[in-house]
């Protein structure tokens, strides 16, 4: 890479829109998958209707769109270990963590033990996490 | 300061491209550097040379092309988003067997890595659009 060698910034991708209806969720995921190759410190945030992107049992047959929800479960393979879901967004929509897909990664520093990469956090804590970031892309 | 710019909405429907254009002009006027302008989502539609807005209205694509020429700006249109929406340069036209190309002067088509690189290199990455 011609530029940026050795620079590690905290990149945060904020997902606030439902998975279908607009293309933002899908194209956000495309950014994240490319970003994973850049060895940056990546966090993903799901808030507002964005939490629907992570729900279990999505079925898009009736709307003729590609169901890309399984891709989220592969994020761990891309070394993405910090996925934050806003607690209030879940509650406001009558959902809980049980309604979401399990997101895991294998910890290379702990004999490849499988660990959770999804964290449900409150709005205040999320604000702090976002405040710590260097680069924020909101979709 | 070194800015990276992201434009996520197409011209005219949304003010994002107008606001970004004004921001870039103001930043350059103040002596700041624009590392790159990256067009994503419907933002790629800013790069079509085929738009014909009414003569008494602004032509955003022409404005971007002109600004790029004057200040040697790097205007990058995301290849994946562009392919979906029918924004092609000559190479892409050939690769996909299409009959025309429409990328406006001063724009180039490249990958999402260019967006990440802008985030790494710029002091601030500023997004325009929803």
Please explain how this structure is put together.
The complex is a heterodimer of chains A (139) and B (130). With 139 residues, chain A is an alpha/beta fold. Chain A has one domain (10-138): Hypothetical Protein Ychn, Chain: A (3-Layer(aba) Sandwich), CATH 3.40.1260.10. Chain A is 22% helix and 23% strand. Chain A has helices at residues 24-35, 70-73, 87-92, 123-131; strands at residues 10-15, 41-46, 83-86, 104-107, 113-116, 118-121, 135-138. In chain A, the strands form two sheets. In chain A, strands 6-3-2-1-7 form a five-stranded parallel sheet. Chain A has a two-stranded antiparallel ribbon with strand order 4-5. The longest helix of chain A has 12 residues, at 24-35. Chain A is globular. The two termini of chain A are 26 Å apart. The mean pLDDT of chain A is 95. The model of chain B has no long low-confidence stretch (mean pLDDT 97). Chain B has a single domain (2-128), classed as Hypothetical Protein Ychn, Chain: A (3-Layer(aba) Sandwich), CATH 3.40.1260. Chain B has a five-stranded parallel sheet with strand order 4-3-2-1-5, with helices on both faces. Helices cover 37% and strands 20% of the residues of chain B. Chain B has helices at 16-29, 60-71, 79-85, 90-95, 113-121; strands at 2-7, 33-39, 75-78, 107-110, 124-128. Chain B has five helices and five strands; from the N terminus they run E-H-E-H-E-H-H-E-H-E. Chain B is α/β, with parallel strands linked by helices and 130 residues long. Chain A binds chain B through residues 1, 3-4, 7, 9, 11, 23-24, 27, 30-31, 34-35, 37-38, 40, 134-139, and chain B through 6, 8, 40-41, 80-81, 111-113, 115-117, 119-121, 125, 127, 130.
What key phrases describe this protein's structure?
heterodimer, A: 139 residues, alpha/beta, Hypothetical Protein Ychn, Chain: A, two-stranded antiparallel ribbon, 22% helix, globular, B: 130 residues, five-stranded parallel beta sheet, 5 strands, 37% helix
